[in-house]
Design goal:
Layout lengths: L1 H23 L9 H7 L1 H11 L4 H10 L4 H12 L17 E6 L51 H6 L27 H10 L2 H12 L7 E17 L4 E17 L12 E8 L3 H14 L16 H7 L2 H9 L6 H21 L6
Antiparallel strand pairs: 1-2, 2-3, 3-4
Helix pairs in contact: 2-4, 3-4, 3-5, 4-5, 7-9, 8-9
């Protein structure tokens, strides 16, 4: 037994060395730096920060490098590191209405205060491979700097709210739970659901959102507004008696406008879906807002259609890619004893079947 353990340790060490060699790749090719990943693979960095629940572009870029580009592995590294950090307190809620928008679009109003700001987006590209990017040292054409919205702009849903055509954004006043400190328990209120969706795997959330658009959940949504930009982070210092700005974060916020036929207590009006994630992550923010709205069916008095996106237990317990990865990949580990018992059981059942029907063996 001792020999087996020692042999396993050597094998694992060798596997680590081999992994480091594969990570480096061909040494005739320049090594990828953390700064290059941070600046040129920003969307991957944003996803790792969002699903890792830690805003640190340098650390996310380092995790991507260590993980050889496996974003789920990078998220795992970020979450593991996050548990080692001390917590000094809580910041005040960010004011997304004061966001300096690099991108701000609405699918519900063409002309709106502040205007439509297209910003950096793939939406209008032709999805054709640009082979010029393969040219080493190819410098992009220098263009004048592009500016987003010069001043903070109001939320589009405020226009509907002024006419009483959309539900008022709720605030129960209670401090929300913290999924990074406490495990998820059901039933979960909306604040916890939104936290879980913000940390959920982008692909899973996208699939759930897509299902609602195809009829599994009866939610027909318009993007009331999608905005991306920097917001100030403030923290109240007890010794000072007021809040001070401690930094900025880039966020993507999406508010969807959804149909609602009304109920016994509420008139016909629009309802809201909401998504908020770190960095430029608009696919995730839109998906999050659609799933958020689907999960609200009970509080709005709607029918349960049996759609997967309406099932809070299904969505919240299966969207976390770190939990899913751990449970999935553990089947790669040794299960020798379990399999031998299963194997012996199958052999026994086959013997009994043959003995019960002797002619079947002829």
């Amino acid at each position: 037994m001792y020999v087996a353990v020692k042999g396993g340790e050597r094998a694992i060490e060798n596997a680590h060395d081999w992994l480091a060699e594969e990570r480096r790749g061909d040494r005739d090719v320049a090594e990828l730096t953390v700064a290059q990943i941070r600046e040129q693979l920003a969307l991957a960095v944003n996803r790792v920060m969002a699903e890792g629940s830690l805003y640190d572009p340098d650390l996310a870029a380092l995790a991507i490098k260590q993980a050889r580009g496996d974003l789920i592995e990078a998220v795992f590294l970020i979450r593991a590191y996050r548990t080692t950090l001390p917590r000094f307190g809580y910041t005040a809620p960010v004011d997304t209405g004061a966001m300096r928008c690099d991108r701000r679009i609405s699918a519900t109003y063409k002309d709106l205060p502040g205007g439509q700001v297209l910003g950096p987006t793939f939406d209008y590209t032709h999805r054709l491979i640009d082979f010029k990017l393969a040219a080493d040292g190819q410098a992009p054409e220098v263009r004048p700097a592009r500016e987003g919205a010069a001043e903070p702009v109001p939320h589009v849903t405020g226009f509907l709210n002024a006419e009483g055509l959309i539900e008022t954004a709720g605030d129960d006043g209670d401090a929300p739970g913290d999924l990074t400190r406490e495990p998820l328990e059901l039933p979960a209120d909306r604040a916890l659901r939104l936290q879980a969706l913000a940390r959920a795997d982008e692909g899973f959330t996208l699939g759930m959102a897509y299902s609602t658009q195809r009829g599994y959940g009866r939610t027909h949504a318009f993007v009331g507004e999608l905005r991306i930009g920097a917001v100030a982070v403030e923290m109240e210092v007890p010794e000072l008696g007021f809040s001070i700005e401690i930094g900025e974060v880039v966020l993507t916020e999406c508010e969807t406008v959804n149909q609602f036929k009304g109920s016994k207590t509420e008139p016909p009006q629009f309802t809201r879906g909401y998504g908020l994630v770190f960095g430029q992550s608009e696919r995730k923010a839109i998906s999050m807002s659609l799933v958020d709205r689907a999960l609200r069916w009970e509080e709005l008095g709607e029918d349960d259609t049996g759609a997967p996106a309406q099932d809070a237990e299904f969505v919240l317990y299966h969207g976390d890619n770190i939990q899913a990865t751990g449970f999935l990949e553990h089947i790669k580990l040794p299960h020798y004893v379990d399999f031998q018992s299963e194997l012996e059981l199958i052999r026994k059942l086959r013997r009994e079947a043959v003995e019960a029907v002797p002619e079947a063996a002829e």
